[in-house]
Amino acid sequence: MTDPRFFRSHGPFTVAELAAMTGAELVGAGDPGLAITDLAPLDTAGPTQVAFLENRRYLSGFRSCRAGACLVAPEFVPQAPEGMALLVTPRPRRNFARIGQAFFPPEPAAPGVHPAAVVDPAAELGDSVSIGPGAVVAAGARIGARSEIGPNVVIGEAVEIGEATRIGAGASVSHALIGARVHIYPGVRIGQPGFGFEMDADGPFMVPQLGRVIVEDDVEIGANTTIDRGSGPDTVIGRGTMIDNLVQIGHNVVVGRGCIIVAQVGISGSTRLGNRVVLAGQVGVAGHLEIGDGVQIAAKSGVNRSVPAGVAVGGAPAVPIREFRRQIAAIKRLGRRSEGDT
Prior knowledge:
Helices cover about 15% and strands about 30% of the residues. The chain is α/β, with parallel strands linked by helices. A 12-stranded mixed beta sheet has the order 8-11-14-17-20-25-28-31-34-37-39-40, with helices on one face. Strands 9-12-15-18-21-26-29-32-35-38 form a 10-stranded parallel beta sheet, with no helix packed on it. It has a 7-stranded parallel beta sheet with strand order 10-13-16-19-24-27-30, with no helix packed on it. Pathway: Bacterial outer membrane biogenesis; LPS lipid A biosynthesis.
């Protein structure tokens, strides 16, 4: 059960209402008027909760599930427990997320500036902006209407924040233009100088980093992620991109629209990602590369050359995914031979 101390429910919703909001087909012997009060996993869901099944590996749990309603892919309908209301849809997980958004929409912070915040008189605040305790908003910064600046956030000089953007506790934003409906999680660092240096007889010295960070609308940036400002060109994060926790994005990187970047990825300077690129966990991408639209890169891969659009790669160095799988199979065969020789 969802803990009401942390999440305020906007339910209940009837099974019929859930079907209407997701476009799912309601089948089975369940009561369409049953009030659903919460969401839960298959193995713990009770008679007034909704669950979902999309992956065959959880089929045994579905057969014994006690949920009052379940979002289910069409091929699993014959396996349903007797009496369960079935919401049949080809995308159960996606529609489960939609139901979750209906039950638990984001709770807006109370508008106003906390007495412990410091807002420069030359900063501009839109209507219904919330500024938390300890936050600092520097001169010339512009915060769009209904945006939320959390505790101890630092917004640098002349930074622009779009409407309905949320910035979590302890984050800092400098040398940046942030779009609307962006969610920046706690501890994020945006706009720090990129790692650019030259060498002379005395050793390395830093090259001035004179660019910006541009974050387009509807982007999510996970906790403790760092995005360096450009060295002259801008660092750009495209609209609708989702970035996990603990990601490092170097200077001058351009990330396209609708990309997914999973935890502990590092993208070196001046690399360009196309649209809808997926980088799985701990991928490392070298600098000055071109990663095409729709590319998928497997976890822990090291990418040291450009990848054309639509290609899946894996390994270190990364190769086309079929070749990577053949490499893994060959290593396993060598291991079995080695065991046989002992």
